[in-house]
Design goal:
6 strands; alpha+beta; four-stranded antiparallel beta sheet
Amino acid sequence: MKSLSQVLMRPIVTEKTTALGEESNKYVFEVARASNKHEIKRAVEQFFGVKVLDVRTMNVNGKPKRLGIHAGRRASWKKAIVTLNSEDKIDLFDAV
């Protein structure tokens, strides 16, 4: 079994994902490419102490980039959209 830090990489915080969290209680995370929906659900529930209703995943292909004559690609990554129970909430900006 993978540890929480191996499954959840970081939360994705943009205007669109913030609105998604406020309107429909969904949160977006970058996750390990080898992780599956069951591992993501277990990691979010254990780490944040919430009840997860649904997990949707998608693979995001890296964009082609170039610097002068050198061409390359950004790394591909995996994104998970996690739907929480209506009573639960994740505060991504905890005051430490």
